[in-house]
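hiii so um. not sure if this is the right channel but i have a protein structure encoded as tokens and i wanna go backwards to a sequence. like what aa goes where. can anyone help
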């Protein structure tokens, strides 16, 4: 099969018939063998009924329905597990992503050898309250990931099938799929400026909380990618620094105390607890020890964990 198109959706009953007709026209004109996987993320409207109706007239359509709203990342994860096409394309169901981009995205993956091509909504039709946070978010994501992409969160992306089978999209990590692909060893990541339409039906799902959660997820992803398999390298360094600060402060306290004892005015012996260095040494050495123990516990968890294997085999003889 040439192409799999994964469409996560939530309360998009009005847009689905138009979107499906648009996708079908484009892929049939291009001559692709294809499947369309709609993932209903617990919609409260008639989205699932619409998908069932479309399926009755088109065997290329497949549907997945969640019992409740879990989020876009779980929807993509379940869609990725079921794709069979050589190239996988994701797009949103709100008609803001144009299916006319499908043929060129497919060509970039198959002919130019990209592992992943991310869409770039160069000209956006979103309100200012959404575009400004998006620009700030993308600038931060570029800094952390090292990927020179303009629009990490664009729903329109194309992947080689191997990519989506090798990554796990969880929590709200759909914003960082290019970064996840890079961590998994897929380095040929490109970008394409794509059309962006104003929303025709329904309302946006964007909220301020998603903006702040995005930064927290980015920090989590950066930390786990660098120290997930070697936590002692992070906590051990911090623990060493804190312990050394405490030890140096303790040496200063002892030196002052010895100097006061040996001084001619032996009666003027200040109490150790009157020195701020005493509290610095106490705090530093306790924190350093705790950080070291955290690192050891982290290492034990990693070495004895039976969790998912994140090593991707490229070839095997």
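sure thing!! here u go:
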């Amino acid at each position: 099969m040439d192409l799999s198109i994964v469409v996560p959706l939530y309360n998009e009953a009005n847009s689905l018939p138009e979107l499906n007709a648009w996708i079908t026209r484009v892929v049939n004109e291009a001559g692709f063998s294809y499947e369309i996987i709609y993932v209903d993320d617990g919609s409260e409207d008639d989205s699932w009924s619409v998908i069932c109706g479309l399926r009755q007239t088109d065997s290329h359509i497949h549907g997945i329905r969640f019992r409740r709203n879990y989020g876009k990342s779980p929807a993509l994860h379940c869609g990725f597990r079921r794709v069979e096409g050589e190239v996988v394309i994701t797009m949103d169901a709100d008609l803001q992503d144009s299916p006319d981009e499908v043929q060129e995205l497919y060509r970039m993956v198959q002919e130019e050898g990209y592992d992943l091509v991310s869409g770039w909504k160069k000209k956006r039709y979103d309100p200012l309250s959404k575009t400004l946070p998006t620009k700030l978010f993308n600038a931060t994501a570029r800094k952390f990931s090292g990927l020179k992409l303009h629009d990490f969160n664009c729903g329109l992306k194309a992947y080689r099938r191997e990519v989506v089978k090798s990554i796990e999209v969880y929590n709200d990590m759909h914003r960082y799929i290019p970064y996840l692909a890079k961590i998994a060893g897929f380095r040929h990541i490109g970008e394409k400026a794509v059309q962006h339409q104003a929303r025709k039906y329904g309302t946006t799902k964007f909220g301020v909380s998603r903006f702040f959660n995005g930064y927290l997820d980015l920090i989590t992803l950066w930390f786990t990618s660098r120290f997930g398999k070697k936590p002692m390298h992070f906590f051990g360094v911090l623990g060493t620094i804190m312990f050394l600060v405490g030890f140096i402060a303790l040496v200063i306290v002892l030196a002052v105390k010895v100097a006061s004892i040996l001084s001619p005015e032996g009666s003027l012996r200040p109490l150790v607890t009157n020195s701020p260095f005493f509290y610095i040494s106490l705090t530093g050495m306790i924190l350093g020890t705790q950080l070291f123990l955290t690192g050891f516990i982290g290492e034990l968890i990693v070495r004895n964990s039976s969790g998912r294997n994140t090593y991707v085999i490229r070839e095997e003889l």
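oh and Strands lie at 3-9, 34-40, 61-65, 87-90, 116-120, 157-160, 189-193.
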